[in-house]
Amino acid sequence: KKILIINGPNLNFLGIREKGIYGNDDYNSVCKYIKEKYENEDVKIDILQSNSEGKIIDFLQSAYFNEVDGIVINPGAYTHYSYAIFDAIKSVSIPTVEVHLSNIDEREEFRKISVTAPACIAQIYGKGKDGYVEAVELLLER
Ligand code: DQA
């Protein structure tokens, strides 16, 4: 099975940005943590990151052409206003799980709304890096 994990803007700044909210682990160690979980399993995990909306849409479309089985996406702040990413998730018709490291329900008002989640089969938040693992598990169970 092939799973693609897509991380949006500022997630490459993990370990630097707002550590009280996002933790001390840097981006590469979070990626390593997820990949190591599946080292000995028959599943291929790719992780991509971009700060730009168009690139994220290109990643989603590439998942279609590469016949990816499931997508995990943390669209960062695009979560709260990108109808283009909502459309792209719908367009590729690949089961997608939305993940947020922080508890978006207990922060600023604008974070409570996700315009991308309705295109996804599930949304996981507030569980830190383990949220990504939970999302992969959910996709593999299908
Ligand atoms: C985030 C939550 C978003 O509101 C924020 O803009 C991010 C990270 C999270 O993983 O908790 O960049 O998606």
Automatic annotation (TrEMBL):
Read off the InterPro entries from this record: DHquinase_II, DHquinase_II_CS, DHquinase_II_sf
Its GO biological process annotations read: amino acid biosynthetic process; aromatic amino acid family biosynthetic process; chorismate biosynthetic process; quinate catabolic process
Its UniProt entry gives the catalysed reaction(s) as: 3-dehydroquinate = 3-dehydroshikimate + H2O
N-terminal signal peptide = none
GO MF annotation list: 3-dehydroquinate dehydratase activity
Keyword hit for Lyase: yes
Residues binding substrate, per UniProt: N74, H80, D87, L101, S102, R111
**Is Lyase given among the entry's keywords?**
yes
Q: Which PROSITE patterns has this protein been placed in?
A: DEHYDROQUINASE_II
What Enzyme Commission number(s) apply to this enzyme? 4.2.1.10
Q: Which domain of life is it from?
A: Bacteria
**Gene3D superfamilies, A to Z:** Dehydroquinase, class II (3.40.50.9100)
List of catalytic residues = Y22, H100
The EC category is lyase
Q: What pathway does the UniProt record associate with this protein?
A: Metabolic intermediate biosynthesis; chorismate biosynthesis; chorismate from D-erythrose 4-phosphate and phosphoenolpyruvate: step 3/7
Q: Name one Pfam family in it.
A: DHquinase_II
Describe its function: Catalyzes a trans-dehydration via an enolate intermediate.
Q: Which family does it belong to?
A: Belongs to the type-II 3-dehydroquinase family.
Mind telling me what this protein is named?
Answer: 3-dehydroquinate dehydratase
**What's the source species for this entry?**
Leptotrichia mesophila
Ranked from the top, the taxonomy reads: Bacteria, Fusobacteriati, Fusobacteriota, Fusobacteriia, Fusobacteriales
State the gene name recorded for this protein: aroQ
